[in-house]
Amino acid sequence: MKKTSRDERFSATERKKEVLDKLSNLGENLYQQMAQGNFPSIKMPSRSIENIYYNPEVRQYVLGDRTVKRTAQNIRHIKPFTQLVWTGYFAQELTTNRKTSTLRDVYYSAQAYEISFQDQAESDNVITDLETVADCAREDLNIFPEERSAIFGDLTIEYTVPGYEGKQLNLTSHPDGVMIGPALTYSEFVKTTADKVIAIEKGGLFTRFIEENVHKKYNALLVLTAGQAPRATRHFIRRLNRELDLPVYIFTDGDPWGMHIAMVIISGSANAAHLRELTTPDAKWSGVWASDIVDYKLPSDPLTELDVKRLHELQRDPRYKNDLWQREIKVFMKHKRKAEQEAFSRYGLTYIVDEYLPAKLEEKI
Question: What domains are defined for the chain?
């Protein structure tokens, strides 16, 4: 089994120390400014649209060189400055005590310290600011979204979280799949017989694949993204690809939104331009393509105005310049139809497993 490289992932102890050092440096810097009689301030990379650009070398969006400054000297900055400092303190408490929190938890926990957030969206935005300041992902700060994705297949992992260190689990152990939460995200890979990863947008198809033993028939690990894949899931897919040398195939609904679910796994998103190690650039979008809707005569629905608008946006997006993506966008625009993964059931419940899936896995794209 391929060893984890240091730039891919630290050990739990190294990761904790690095995060605590960064947070401590942030606090020390603020303290020194005040000790010198100055209003404390924080400089961070700008996340404005003007400072985000697509870097073809790393095949994802990245931040430019522009920065913004928040200072206690500016009355308009007092609230967001205070929110950011408290969030850093809260993240340090979580990391020090090896506890985790959800994004929702952070929003409510702030009230106990009389830190006011207008809503969770504002709280989430400040957490993202902290990511840019501390130069680490919120998951490394022990802050996670509500998990909804899962994995199933012959992979044995070893936990590293407190209380479970050294315990092993095979991911075929639960018939509904194993949730991709914090414990699984940072686990060690012990052994696998799989030679590929199949990422699936919809829960119904994920369940069907488990029932039809796709993991055995096609020697695959099955990952449910449950719509747009959470960042922890995207990081986990990247780990499977990098550490185990497993190619990744992505199956989504045949519509512009499904295309984008695949693209975010492959090339990331503008919202996460400040982060690395979330993308799997060599993953393949294997369907459902617009041309599949035509070729397989799938039951379909007309594209809405919003769908068409989205297609025009994708057509201009530098991530979609590849021939496959441009071709499929044009087919969508020509036929103005979309279809769900479940549409293959018109040919029988197992058609997608017996006919469509092997054809797509063998397709050269």
Answer: 12-144 (1.10.10.10), 150-362 (3.40.1360.10)
